[in-house]
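Reopening: structure tokens for the tryptophanyl-5'AMP complex, inputs below.
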Amino acid sequence: MENTPVKKKRIFSAIQPSGAMTLGNYLGAIRNWVAMQDEFECVYATANLHAITVRQDPKAFKQNTEQLYAMLLACGVDKDKCIFFHQSMVPAHAELSWVLSTFTQFGELSRMTQFKDKSARHADNVNAGLFTYPTLMAADILLYQADLVPVGADQKQHLELTRNIADRFNGIYGNVFTVPEPYIPKQGARVMSLVDPTKKMSKSDDNQKSFILLTDQPSVIMKKFRSAVTDSEACVCRGENKAGINNLMDIYGACTGKSDEEIVAEFEGKGYGDFKTAVGEAVVAVLEPIQARYNELIKDRKYLEKCASQGAENAAKLARRTIEKVYKKVGLPR
Ligand code: TYM
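Re-run output (same inputs, fresh job):
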């Protein structure tokens, strides 16, 4: 019997260059980006068009974007195995976004929790881009006909909207878009703040102690974990009113591969101090090699630029197929 090659599934994901990456970004999304590269056809981007929905200082912004690119390479994103570029270098994202905005309802965008949060935090700049942000995200994904989108749990609502937009468009014009599925990890899908474990860990938090940056020095990481908020029960086990310990167990599990049962057994009869130290050490062990690679990569700006423009060239080829099809279906000459 003849072997028919099985078509690899296509993956797309992106991350905003709005400051350094957090442990939440890494455990919730980037680890899966890296893990998926061998099995799938992966397309990854820095979402710099998304990041301008919040006012940015141009020089620092450009630098942040480059640093993020280097950090993702340091995490293991491999430019020879996947397509990896800056979103702004492929104009088709903005083109498709406009078309899709006419297939997105005002009511749908109004329900997005990220929009509600961000417009409350930046009340002096609730711009139209902040509102239509999820349509640009849908364009990113649908442009590459992605089957799976590795993200943290906070992006699930945007993925549902993307699926609705794709279904709506396909319902009118035939099967133009692949309808994508979110790909959310079992451990680390929602890493919480170390100061208020009922809130998501986020680099935009005012309190530096609430998040771990991938660039934090080991001593800083240990300090932040030592001061992490827990509870008064002194039991390393999951519980309803134990958001702090639940979060530390998630982080420890994600970094060591240990199950909840193994973690409970390991810390039976021990105090929170021992547990926090162990979590800090596990995180340092994951981040140290990444930091070493990052420190090398960031020195070579030429190399980083070359990788990004090569990635953009390859991405543009894939994107063109979709955008041409969409324009044709809608009746727009190109
Ligand atoms: P962004 O830049 O906020 O975050 C990048 C990725 O990190 C995940 N993440 C987390 N996971 C677990 N715990 C946390 N505390 C945590 N914080 C962040 C996010 O879920 C995300 O996967 N809109 C997106 C960027 C984007 C995108 C796309 C993603 C633009 N276009 C297309 C997928 C597909 C965002 O703001 O992610």
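The longest strand covers residues 10-15. Residues 148 and 181 are 5 Å apart (CA to CA). Marking as resolved unless the reporter disagrees.
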